[in-house]
Design a protein that fits this description.
- With 343 residues, the protein is α/β, with parallel strands linked by helices.
- It folds into two domains: 1-38, no CATH class; 48-90 and 170-335, Rossmann fold (3-Layer(aba) Sandwich), CATH 3.40.50.
- It is built from 13 helices and nine strands.
- The protein has helices spanning 5-17, 48-62, 93-105, 116-122, 127-145, 150-163, 179-190, 203-207, 210-214, 253-261, 277-284, 317-325, 332-335; strands spanning 76-79, 165-166, 171-172, 194-202, 221-233, 236-247, 268-271, 291-296, 328-331.
- A seven-stranded mixed beta sheet has the order 6-5-4-1-7-8-9, with helices on both faces. It has a two-stranded antiparallel sheet with strand order 2-3.
- Helix 4 crosses helix 5.
Length: 343
């Protein structure tokens, strides 16, 4: 029987109170409960093979004395968002937010009715937008963002994200996030990795909700961004979105953004498309033992099935390089036991 100082003091108190005349009974002495070790399964929504590969890598790079040990200060993990942490079909979720905003404000903006692209979006016809290409998309984004203050934009996104449901899943967009990837984020952070989002999506759009959903704070969210203006209005500092060119955080733009905003080369990278290929190349060039994970969308029943034939998330050349460099390709149909928490 193990006694600690508290137990000993209590026992002495009982003896003194009774005049130290009687020996204490065994039942009168507190015994510390035996606590059994409980093993919690990590990455439980993953199939065994990819899970083991991830665990083996994490253990190799985090154990003191390992030849592959990575110091905590260099444990940088980066993740794409659309198609990697949540779905990007039939259109990226931020695009849906933009479409919904255009429809909501269309009647209040007579000048928008002269814009064939905006009118097409409002009427459910995306062909004018497709034909207009990137220039047309930037024009639409400027119409949605220009002249809105930081607080106005954030409140608009928060209202949309808190109330709008995905048509396919009939769930809020923030409920339809990939459970295995949430587990992976937690597992890496439990092993002292710092997790960043590096996405083609708008940084301001994501920063409103990523901390609540992914546990990734706004200052660890890197994305596309537009022009801003700072001014003091009635004594109050204010940031306002203005019309201008966009920095598109995609393809070669991702390593550049990582250098610019993180300042360290990642050792772990998660993505799902050719748009993430450059970021994976950059990660693979680390002086440390790195790991890259590509999600291949192969489950049309539980999620979506696509790779080369898609408007968003084209996956082709990255698959070829994945075989050459032994990146982990996740077949979502077979490698994810569960895709969403509600399934």
């Amino acid at each position: 029987m193990k006694l600690n100082y508290v137990t000993l003091a209590l026992a002495c108190g009982v003896l003194c109170f009774t005049g130290c005349k009687n020996e204490p009974k065994e039942a009168d002495i507190y015994e510390e409960p035996v606590v059994e070790d409980v093993k919690i399964e990590v990455l439980s929504a993953w199939a065994d093979a990819p899970k083991q590969r991830i665990v083996d890598w994490v253990e190799a790079v985090t154990q003191d004395g390992s030849p592959d040990y990575i110091p905590v200060k260099d444990r940088i993990a980066v993740f794409d968002n659309d198609g990697t942490l949540w779905p990007e079909q039939p259109v990226p979720n931020q695009a849906q937010y933009i479409f919904d905003y255009l429809k909501k404000e269309y009647s209040n903006k007579p000048e928008w009715k002269k814009d064939a692209v905006v009118t097409g979006v409002v009427n459910g016809d995306l062909e004018p937008l497709k034909k207009a290409g990137m220039k047309g998309l930037i024009n639409v984004i400027n119409k949605v963002n220009t002249a809105r203050t930081e607080s106005e934009f954030n409140e608009s996104v928060k209202t949309w994200i808190d109330t709008t449901k995905s048509k396919k899943f009939n769930k809020l967009y923030t409920e339809a996030v990939y459970l295995p990837m949430l587990q992976l984020l937690d597992y890496l952070r439990d092993n002292e990795f710092k997790t960043f989002i590096v996405s083609g999506g708008g940084a301001d759009f994501m920063r409103v909700w990523t901390e609540d959903i992914y546990g990734i704070p706004p200052y660890q969210v890197i994305g596309s961004y537009g022009e801003l203006k700072y001014e003091v209005v009635d004594g109050i500092p204010r940031i306002t979105k203005t019309e201008g060119e966009l920095y598109v955080d995609d393809k070669a733009g991702k390593p550049v953004a990582i250098h610019r905003f993180i300042g360290k080369k990642p050792v772990f990278c998660g993505g799902n498309s050719d748009g993430d290929q450059a970021m994976m190349q950059y990660t693979s060039s680390s002086k440390y033992k790195s790991m890259c994970v590509i999600l291949h969308h192969t489950d049309g029943e539980r999620e979506f099935e696509y790779d080369t034939k898609t408007l968003s998330g084209h996956l082709e050349t990255a698959l070829v390089e994945a075989k050459e460099k032994n990146w982990l390709v996740v077949d979502m149909k077979n490698d994810f036991k569960q895709i969403f928490s509600f399934q």
